[in-house]
Amino acid sequence: MRTLCSSTLIGEALLIMFAALVAMRLSSVSTATVWIVSGIAMALCIALCGMINRPGAVTTGWALQIGLIASGFVLPTMFALGAVFAGLWWCSVHYGRKVDEFKAARAAAEAAAAQV
To answer: At what angle do helices 57-70 and 2-26 cross, to 10 degrees?
Structure first.
């Protein structure tokens, strides 16, 4: 799960950086505000990469996805891109957990077989 979620978050950080460049030109929001908010969001993405297996990290990731979708009010393209990354986040969490469960079950079966 960690690899899938981290990949999604790194892609999301890059998207936020490029969206900030576009938002500076197209929106009426000040440049400083765009970079401060974008910087915080990018830092949160990077910080979450290292905390995926900790309690509350997935919930924080969902909050980040909602914030990314909400940024569509400043830059309308972000509604669609935020929805895409929310879908990627869901896939990363869902399938990452399935893979982790499969690996744990296989390791348990191998340990049981080794005891016999």
So the answer is: 20
Residue 115 binned pLDDT confidence (cut-offs 50, 70, 90):
confident
Q: What are the Cα distances from residue 78, in Å, to 2, 17, 24, 40, 93?
A: 25, 12, 14, 17, 21
Structure tokens, 63: 């909050």
Question: Which residues lie below 8 Å from residue 5, measured CB to CB, with a gap of 6+?
Answer: 48, 49, 52, 58, 61, 89, 92, 93, 96
Q: Is the pTM of this model over 0.85?
A: no
Q: Model confidence over 89-106: pLDDT tens digits?
A: 999 999 989 999 999 999
Average pLDDT estimate for 73-99? 91
DSSP string, 9-56: HHHHHHHHHHHHHHHHHHSSS-HHHHHHHHHHHHHHHHHHHTTTTSTT
DSSP state letters, 63-79: HHHHHHHHGGGTSTHHH
**DSSP annotation of 110:** H
